[in-house]
Design goal:
The protein is an alpha+beta fold. The protein has two domains: 161 residues, Gcn5-related N-acetyltransferase (GNAT) (Aminopeptidase, 3-Layer(aba) Sandwich); 163 residues, Gcn5-related N-acetyltransferase (GNAT) (Aminopeptidase, 3-Layer(aba) Sandwich). 27% of the residues lie in helices and 29% in strands. It contains nine helices and 14 strands. Strands 1-2-3-4-5-7-6 form a seven-stranded mixed β-sheet, with helices on both faces. A seven-stranded mixed β-sheet has the order 8-9-10-11-12-14-13, sandwiched between helices. The radius of gyration is 21 Å and the shape is globular.
Length: 380
């Protein structure tokens, strides 16, 4: 078979939509591959690279999307699909390698490339491991197609990225075991677990919060707050907020992206009233999102911010992934912890896990039991 790999063009739109529609029967959770306008925008984008494999008559038989953040030399690969008639020929692997080479030849290149893989079968996990992706965590119930799906997190590192890590901190006790599992997959120096840290406890009552859905206004508002350095927890690459949760006086403004297809949500930044309890704020925001039908929330926090990690953990978010050297600032790269909160009943019967992914899941379940069950079921 004569196989050609290239960037997608607007002429490929019909073939690409067909691929995802047939494979997922209309349940694919990323609207990029179900909405014509969004697919056109992606193909035309300067920071998104949609690669395709074509066979006879230039028919598209496979597709893979790369997002690229030049500032942080960071990439994300995902959305892989192969026509059922052409599976078993390592086409996804070839597209991944082609995409990596393509972006590495862009300015300024790439230090970290991460990917998430489905866990309903082992194929994607085995493929990424063979290519050199290192397992970093697991996201229970992160997406919904026909059923709720758990995805695994992995990353590949270039240009000595891990050697540039900021390491002048101790790990939060809730993160220590997660970090140790990561160290089984990546050569990283051992880090001690903190027994104390600077706690900033504010007890102010969380005010009334209202929800605004005005996409362009929200995008501009977050841009302006970022420019004036009034926003925190604002590093969540490749997501643009479409919901704003705000107090009437705007002392609190929390930005989030909500996927309306499968009700997946990520917190993309917040302006915080420093007199208000951070934990109570995130508990209230979680309840607001849950009542709007959201079933999964995700937030990422720098690993050295122990006070914030402590507060978000008390708000019932569970650490599920750890990405070393994720963000570039100056000449240092900073580790990040991924936290999630699911409102669905956890069901792992359909999982097929490889490598360290079973350990990540076990660690997640143990932390979930500790956070949600406490000592209630412990034998006295």
């Amino acid at each position: 078979m004569k196989l050609q790999l290239r960037r997608a063009s607007l002429e490929d739109i019909t073939d690409i939509l067909r691929l995802y529609t047939f494979a997922y029967e209309g349940t694919y959770p990323d609207s990029t591959f179900t909405d014509v306008d969004k697919l056109i925008s992606t193909i035309s984008s300067g920071d998104k690279f949609l690669f395709v494999a074509t066979a006879e008559n230039d028919k598209v038989i496979a597709s893979l999307l790369f997002n690229y953040d030049r500032i942080n030399k960071l990439g994300k690969a995902g959305g892989a699909i192969v026509d059922t008639s052409f599976r078993g020929q390592n086409i996804t692997q070839k597209l991944l390698k082609y995409g990596i080479d393509f972006i590495n030849n862009c300015e300024p290149g790439i230090d970290v490339l991460y990917i998430t893989t489905r866990t309903v079968h082992k194929a994607a996990q085995v493929l990424t491991q063979k290519m050199g992706f290192l397992q970093l965590g697991i996201f229970p119930n992160v997406h919904k197609t026909k059923d709720y799906e758990t995805h695994a997190l992995a990353a590949m590192y270039f240009n000595g990225a891990c050697e540039k890590r900021f390491t002048d901190f101790e790990q939060h006790p809730d993160i220590g075991e997660l970090f140790n599992i990561v160290r089984e997959n990546i050569t990283l120096p051992e880090m001690s677990v903190a027994t104390e840290w600077m706690n900033k406890n504010y007890e102010g009552v969380v005010p009334i919060l209202e929800v605004i859905k005005a996409k362009e206004f929200i995008k501009l508002r977050m841009k302006n707050l970022s420019f004036s350095e009034e926003i925190d927890l604002a590093f969540f690459p490749f997501h643009t907020p479409n919901i704003l949760i705000t107090s009437p006086d705007q002392k609190i403004e929390l930005f989030a992206y909500v996927n309306e297809i499968d009700k997946h949500c990520v917190i993309t930044g917040c302006k915080i009233d420093r007199e208000v309890s951070f934990t109570d704020l995130f508990l209230k925001v979680s309840n607001i999102l849950r009542d709007r039908g959201i079933r999964y929330i995700e937030v990422i926090i720098r690993a050295n911010r122990l006070n914030i990690i402590d507060k978000i953990s008390k708000a019932k978010f569970i650490p599920c992934g750890y990405v070393p050297a994720f963000q570039l600032e100056g000449d240092k790269r900073y580790d990040y912890v991924v936290f999630s909160r699911s409102f669905e009943i956890l069901d792992f019967n359909n999982l097929q896990l490889t490598g360290a992914n079973a350990k990540y899941l076990q660690n997640y379940v143990e932390l979930w039991e500790k956070r949600f069950l406490g000592n209630y079921f412990q034998v006295k």
